[in-house]
TrEMBL record:
Organism name: Nostoc minutum NIES-26
Lineage per the UniProt record: Bacteria, Bacillati, Cyanobacteriota, Cyanophyceae, Nostocales
Alphabetical list of Pfam families matching this protein: WD40 (PF00400)
The protein's name in its UniProt record: WD40 repeat domain-containing protein
Amino acid sequence: MGRFYGSIHIRSTETEQITEIVKKLAAQEKLKFLISPCINGWISVYSSKSGQNPTVAPAIAQQFSGHLLNLILYDDDFFYYEYYRSHQLIDAYSSEPEYFGTISKEEKSRLTGKPEVFADLLAELSNNQTSIEDIAEVLTVLSLEKREELFQKSLEVLQQLEVGATSAEISELPDEEVFAAERQFSGFAQLLNISNASTCYEYLEDEEDKVIERREEFIHIPDPSIELAHKQREKARRDEALAKLNRAGILLTTISSPTPSGQFPYIPISIPDQTGGFFISWRGLGNQPLEIKHYTEPWNNEPTNLDLPLEQNAYVMQISPSGKFLAVGHASGSWQATLYNLEQKQLIKTIPHVRATSGIQFTPNEEIIVSRSEDEIILTSIKNLQQIAVIKIGLGSKIAIHPNGRHLLANERESKLAIIDLNTQKVVKVLSTAALDMTAWMASIQTGEGVTSFSNNEMIFKMDFSPDGKWLLCAMDKGVRIFEWNEVFSSKNKLPLPIVAAPSEIVTFDDPPSRMATTYDIAFDRQRNTLLSCGLEGKVKSVDLATGESKVLLELPGKPAVIQLNLSRDLATFCTHSQPNMFKRGRNQEPFIVQIWNYLALV
């Protein structure tokens, strides 16, 4: 996700006049604003929703007759400006005029920018040597071929980062060329003596303001005490809802995150134990010892510590079917999987990997541990602790073992599913997920009902099997999908139609303005033949495999994104990992919360 900058710069020294204009606009548009003092002859206005609302600049221009510039950087992908004078739009520019689709030649020509219209403005700037030619140069875009070359290079870097590569391991890219739109944006602002352009309302409110001039003098519209009171009321309502669930015996316990030592929050890891409890820990950056705590009923008792020599760079954990072994996948520079004997409380095997170990599983007979990292899967014997095989596969992070112990599933680039024969250690076939219709997506965007971004196929976030092996269970961005395994195994190129499907709910976020839908995790209730799921919408849902009926079991107060869901082995409770305001940036990012819920009280 790239940067979103958006700000309006007004050539004036009359801060009070601009403040009155913005106050009226804030009431009309239900927006929030920050207004800077006059710096270099410019007063800057930052509106909420990352300054991307197209109605704000023309509305201010109708009330102000001088020079006004609306500067936008969209997702690091394109630079856009509007220039107003005498209440009129004088010029507009886009570095990617067809970013959202094909436009007419006339419209494309209108967005090429006319540097000569800035002659009068340049004459007003004191101690400024900028020429029309300088502006023309900064508006020049790279050729299509060059941009495609840089795009491919940046994709390679992104893939390396996704699997945990360090900066020293990543090939260098020409930053100014890869982020050409940001270079144009900042260069254009500098040519016109505009300060504090490379930011937006949300970044400033999240205290990402170290390089912002005179930040302490900015004015907030409306009065920030009103918003603070609103947030306090929202928190009070959320706290009361949680207290009510606790009194009703539905919320059994809440486990708060440790206080982070740096900017990045601790992230929870949890797995069910063999009876009805959970092992829960919090991972951070670095190689400090990792503390795993065992939570069991009664839930208000202090948990016990699992005394194991673990490091804090643990990424995933898995308990063996008998509960005798614990397997851990590591990240953050420690490219390995580790195997522990829980009865003896000791490390018995370290399995080196090429990158972060993102998936780890035991075969049902507990003879093999399967660990995955980037494009490799390693099979290791638990009996003699020797490597059995290394299987090369497409980039991905998820694995699931069929209850027959013969077949392993692994996702490839989120939209493909590889079936691997563990006896032969060969990939049997690779199946694509359902293809998505771009025309239908475009229509949904125009009606305001679709998600912001488009993918060619459904994306896989989690795979699992029913205990009898009959059903393949999947969490995807578009929702829950349940497939008949025999149909999957007999398919040639793509997954068959699901026998049951339940959609994800679309959630709207303001920073950056976007609409998303994702189901992150699933858990199967073998007794009731239902599949539980969780996702961005802040709910735990269930779908009945026999009837296809889907319903909401629990809506978490405040509707935080629910990232992980673990059902206890006795089917009495479930554990959730959630994060309020998941896409909030900077120091105000809220910590993860782990909660244990009374499942029996909800079904």
